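Recall the central idea of this unit: under ordinary conditions, the amino acid sequence of a chain determines the structure it adopts. In this exercise we apply that idea directly, starting from the sequence alone.
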Amino acid sequence: MTLAIMQPYVLPYIGYIQLLNAVDTFVFYDDVAFINRGWVNRNRLLVNGNEYLFTIPLKDASQNKLIREIELANDPKWRGKLLKTIEQSYRKAPQYGVIMPMAERIINFQADTIADYIFHSFSELTTHLGITTRLVASSTVYENGHLKAQERIVDICRQEGAERYINPIGGTELYSQSAFEPIGCELRFIQPRRVTYPQTGGGEFVPWLSIVDLLMNLDAETIRPLLTEFDLTTNERISN
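Accordingly, the structure predicted from this sequence is:
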């Protein structure tokens, strides 16, 4: 069984979806400290040919709270504003008629916390893309919040019986194979390849935008092969 663990990000870029698709079980790491100005509640769209950073407003967000403790703000206007931005930016996109209703379901979903809000969005995204990965919130299962950093990751792998753990490429300095060997688990890092596609309303291609941009421009059948456009690396070398 192959496992990945990531903090929940709202409508993330294709690399995040590639990681989710590459594993059997994907753990949303929602009982770790929230990071201000991170990607939990922010992402980027293409507006008038340029990057546009959207932010989902939160209530009393703090790095002293866990992600699962962060509530959505009591602001009735942000959902309509975000949907209007998507509508105006992508109404000429090939998949607008298919994706806009899904975007409305995701953005209008009523949840108390950002973690629950994002978790629901992935039920929509995975269904559309035909991804069958099991999704788990770390706060609901493992009861190992007393552990820290690599030790906790290894313990989740142990509890799940993982034979391979895949981490984003940025963790090569944080994790070592020797820590995973006692539980019989391989450690690998995912390196997304640059994926390009026709962008509606754009000039020069803007990479690594929210998955919304990709979904608006390509149908699910065309997207599926792009989810395997990555390399797996150890701490030493690249492997396919």
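The two ends are 18 Å apart (CA to CA).
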